[in-house]
Amino acid sequence: MVEVSTSILSVKKGEESKTFFALEASKTDYFHIDVMDGKFVEKDTYAKMLEYSSYIKRISNLPLDVHLMVNDIKKAIDDFIAVEPNIITFHLEACENEENVFENIKYIKENNSKVGIAIKPETNVEEIYKYLPYIHMCLVMTVEPGKGGQTYLSDMTEKVKTLKKYIDENNMEIDIEVDGGINLRTAPAVKKAGANILVAGTAILKAVDYKNIIDELKMEN
Questions:
Q1: Which of 133, 116, 186 is nearest to 156 (CA)?
Q2: How many C-beta neighbours within 10 Å does residue 82 have?
Q3: DSSP secondary-structure letter at 173?
Q4: Quick one: which of 5, 121, 130, 135 has the most CB atoms within 10 Å?
């Protein structure tokens, strides 16, 4: 089953309540929280995402899908664990070494959250294989992280396909999430390749009817 995680990055100030309620009514599966520190990526959304996720926690029971695009992963886990996220995803590229990756996995689990690892477009998918038995989700970035509204990088479809093949061959149960440039035009290819959680922000929030586009994104090919 395909699920949709709506990125709230571009939700306008003053329209939070109306937008979050509308997204919940439209049956988004998750609120996707794009946490950026201005160092790992150029943009800094840290305070805004803390504020938005705390607000969502008060008004909604929908799960939070927290995507950390930060250098200081442990601090960000400490800050965002308060909103009881369903899953916390950190970037493989923000870790110094293998030991550091496993420390982050362990720390997130100790804080009662599922674990995801994200990889940027230039990172080889094989680099994540050794961690798959210990995590719940792999997030394949289909644009360079840090900016909303970018165009989907078509080479990433092959990366998703390779990852899905490896997961199936090793009888693992791991979600494959894709994030970046996902819309009604690009979604069919990534779903066919094996992605089962689609992150969409601009495509949903700019639509006249959130429910229509969320329903279409969820449709099996």
A1: 186
A2: 12
A3: -
A4: 5
SS3 120: coil
Residue 198 belongs to domain with CATH number: 3.20.20.70
72-106, pLDDT tens digit by residue? 999 999 999 999 999 999 999 999 999 999 999 99
Domain count within the chain: 1
Lookup: tokens for 70 = 């930060």
- Of 103, 96, 100, 64, the C-alpha closest to 81 is 64
Dihedrals phi, psi of 33, to nearest 5 degrees: -105, 105
Residues marked as catalytic: 34, 179
Reply yes or no on whether the pLDDT at 182 is more than 70: yes
Closest CA to 160 of 147, 146, 184, 141: 141
pLDDT the model gives residue 147: 63
pLDDT in tens, 137-181: 999 999 988 766 668 888 899 999 999 999 999 999 999 999 999
Per-residue pLDDT at 4: 98
Token couple for 171: 């009888």
Question: In 3D, which of 82, 90, 42, 38 has the Cα closest to residue 66?
Answer: 90
Q: Is 67 helix (H, G, I), strand (E, B) or coil?
A: strand
Q: Which domain does 113 fall in, by range? A: 3-218
Q: At what angle do helices 16-25 and 46-59 cross, to 10 degrees?
A: 60
The answer to whether residues 10 and 19 touch, using CB atoms and an 8 Å cutoff, is no
